[in-house]
Prior knowledge:
2 domains, 12 strands, 59% helix
Amino acid sequence: MKKTTINWHQIFKFFAPYFAILLLTTIIISTQLVSHATFITADRYFHFSRFYDAAEQIKTGNFSYFQNNITAMQSGRIINALYGPFFAYLNGLLVLLSGSWFTYQIIMDYLVYLIGGMAVYRMMTKVKVREVNAILLALLYLTLGIMPGWLRADNFMAWGAALAPYVVMCGIDMIQDKNNPVHWVKLMLIMAIIAQIHLLSTVILALSLVPFAIYSFVVNQNKKAILLNFIKAVAGTIVLTANFWGAFLLLYRTNKIALPKSFGLNSGAVHISASGSEHGQLTILVFCLFIAQICYVLFHLRENKLNTFVTLEGAVLLLVSSRFMPWHFIQTLLPGLGRSFQFPYRLIVAAYPLLFLGMGLTLEALVKYKKEKLIVLAVLVAALVQTTVCTIRTNVALTKMYNDPNRVAVLTTYYQIDNKRQDIKGAVNGKDKGLLFKLINRTEPDYLPIYKKHISPDMVNLLYRTDIIDQSMRYNYSVHGSSLYLSWVAKKSDEVQLPLVMYHQSRLQVNNQIVQPQKLNPIGSPTVNQRKGNNTAILSFIVPMWFWGLVIISLVGWLVLFLYGLKVIVNYRFNQN
């Protein structure tokens, strides 16, 4: 019998990128791991809240697709339906399986970084970039821009950044694959996944593919097949995300929804920084690498068509996202962008993968120029060290805040926090995950209904605090099915404003009678008649049948795609044997 030999080189080659990514992540969050620190920032609290609501729905069986009946002060607000509903339930399941918020946070840190790092690595190896160079670029990507923002605050655009290289890989096919430039199943799958997680990332990344699509359509002869595959990809994405756009259609067609608070666009634009590397901060060494990459392409326009294409598009996107753009003037002309777009640096979700791909291609082109390649590699390694140090420094600073008994949580004035901040440590490391939402109340106005034409986010925030949070202690809450129950005892019969919010589709039942509230305040809090003694109110959200049809269509689409993928894997394994 022939003895089987183990190819250790192939094993090492396979596991090397995984090991490098996991090692880098561990080094970055080491102080956090030692201190068991959970960084309660604005975005993280927001996502913890909505995932806990999903977790409790799974645990109790009281499913409510629209109303948040467990968190959001049990006010009946809608959040998950408009923000990655399927992904929220997946996270809810992981929350249930995690022993504490700290454990859940660390699992997600490793998961996002592993997905993002391997996406960059696979993008590089797809265009034949050497493994060592691919790993270095993947590690640099993880410590720059939007990705380190995840470790700090659960910034959900990091999911877009983690998956963006797969979108770019679809663009690579459009440039290089002459026979089948549009791989519609891959394109449909990645865009649908991102759409189910983060809408704005989907929009930006879809727009970044437009130049690739135009090029592919112009240079290839079989335009009918290309157009057909694009239609298939778009149609398939619409099917897979039917639940998502259906919720937007249902709510925005009949309700005015509060916008987030406004930010200064210029302050959120990309700029050179000596002390940080996250979000809009661009370290000087990475800036030099980008400039060198752009200059190389400008002097070698015809050398590598793909390199030229991705570098120039990435450079344009980086320019638009930076302070070189007159964002002060733009915001004066279009003030609404401060609420909707908020941060121009968000464009780097597409710009950075394109520029990194260009750098990988340039490194391969410099193989014959040993001196120049060594210089670029030296700067690349130095840039990686610099961005890693910046990310570690941020992690250390946040850990110190967590360990500060007077601080613990890093939150803005849009939050109310229990005076005993040390209790938060027990909440994030204990088994009772719901305790966190008793110690901290969120008052930001995301997705609240608005019943007044001109009202500022600050006023919405104030009304939510005074009319919902401050009044909630007077009531007892319970959940049955998808409905929220309030009970209270009144000393006399008169009017009372309930700490609830009502959308156009909300139905309110008070003391066994369906009522039309006598009035709604600007955020939809109803005033009703109470009777002396015991009172009960039931808030429900009436979901039309056509919407449930869209949910079924979406779920069936994902099931069909799963079965198709399973068939492809089985056939591949069968052919290998």
